[in-house]
Sequence to fold (379 residues):
Amino acid sequence: MLVVNLTFDFFPGGMERWIIEFSKALKKRKIDSYIVTPQKFNDFLLSTNGVDFIFLDCPVTDNGFLNLFPYSFEASKKCLELIRNERDAILVVHKFKDLPAACLVKKMVDVKIAYVLHNPPFGWLISPEGYRSYRMDFSRYVTEYNLWKKFVNYVDYFFSNSKWISSLYKKFEGLHVVPLYAGSDHVEQILLNNVQRKNDASNLSKPFILSVGSFEPRKRFDLLLKALSELKNEDYQCFIVGGRRNPTPYIELSRKLGLGSRVKFFSKIDEATLFDFYSNCYFYVHPANHEHLGIAVLEAMASKVPVIVQNNGGVIELVKHEYNGFYFRDDDVKELVEYMTLLFNDKKLREKMASNSKKQASRFRWDHVVETFLKTIYK
Fold:
């Protein structure tokens, strides 16, 4: 069997971690697996040991179908070279912009297409709830959405990273989508590797909070900063690790709120440092609104850390309220402050939730993801 993951959109982030670890898990099952992606991936900082890449000479872009059509031919050619002589091949796509190349391949060879839906459907994105979450006007993508509806007819299997995403596609598109979730077992090896290096984060003089995500509006770092400004305890630091977008708006907001040196922003750090942060923070806050799954949340849990998340989206399928963390109501800064204060002040609660986080994260394994994927294809 051969599995080829095709994605034009490869930035340091949760989806990319998912693709990398999924590919590794397939190889552990003795299944040939490749990732076809732009050359820009060379700048990526997550561990890719044991992953086979085929690089495309094309730009990484936030633009959709129309800008990438010329590069779809190159991508389809690369995929064909891998698939042509393989009878049992699955071509896995992860975003709508990957579909044209996959469909070109399917027209030329006998291959099945699996679509892992990491993002909500168009119908939800243009709804009031979707607009509040993303703060973007998606109505300008109507042309590309109509193209998407034609291309999805070529897809054989639909998967997602959470039950929440699956339910949205059932509601808005009438699609049967199998949730795969993600795994957390890759964290254990990274933490073991970190034992061998100097642990910088453990030597910090003040306790710190951690939050990880791209610097885009839906991640709601503005909520976290407002909550930090209302904390009575000022003897802390907060590390916000992001990427993809410019953090300047959040840096300016931090200054305006008078947070000063209490908040530090990181646009790029290596994997070892990130997991030092996970392991040594007091607790982890994920303020994103309607997060699809939140692999960073899962990584924090596996690193034995209590977590605080918004009470919506797919992330609440990972966290148990008052067991290994807390849910705070939609955009409720006051409640977020309340839970942060509680975790700062109650060491026993923090330690109990940290232990429970580890137990909860252990339920999510990459071999389970692969097992569900294979069972769906071969049922």
In short: The chain has two domains: 2-183+365-378, 186-361.
